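Researcher: Structure prediction, please.
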Amino acid sequence: MSGPPPRAGGTELDGAELGGTELGGTDPDWADDADVVARSLERPEAFARLYDRHAPDIHRYVARRLGDSMADDITADTFLTAFRIRARYDRAHPNARPWLYGIAGNLIGRHRRTEVRALKALARTGHDPVAASWSETWVERTDSRVAAQGPLAGALAALSAGDRHVLLLVAWADLGYQEVAQALDIPVGTVRSRLNRARRKVRAALGADPAFAGDTAEVV
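Model: Predicted structure follows.
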């Protein structure tokens, strides 16, 4: 799987100088993400530090959901969108990961049909070009684990968009309940109910076959 796209020339993030202390370095006064965003309001080039911190994780998450071919563009669009709306960032949150995953999720949502189509194809055939990039890293290529791809993909495809989004933010982005609530701008209680419903449906779809236990543990 390829890494995140470099900061492209000609964009608002181009030309950032991240070395030394001019843009913060190890300065504790603006070491967290909220401080980076605040500094970037006066020094736009400082925002590139946020990209360097979080772009690899965002790229991996998008690639698992939509494939490498779309991950580069969506990762770039996530950070360009974040840059453009950075003045609205709630600086009470020192970690910008949930905010960035929320933006990425909105962009992924525009490709919901692509995601569901890929999951259904994987469930039906065991292979799909769009899903291949994440399925190969998600499931090791042993016979028993390859067999688990189809049923799990089918179970994910059958979820509502909202339930699938919550489930995968927890399972693949490793966000906590409060972070998911922040990312999606919904109450924590809604996160819990969606997650519980999604897990019940996935477990029911997979059944009690022990061959799937290790492969689906991060999801169910």
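Model: The chain has eleven helices and no strands.
Researcher: Thanks, that helps.
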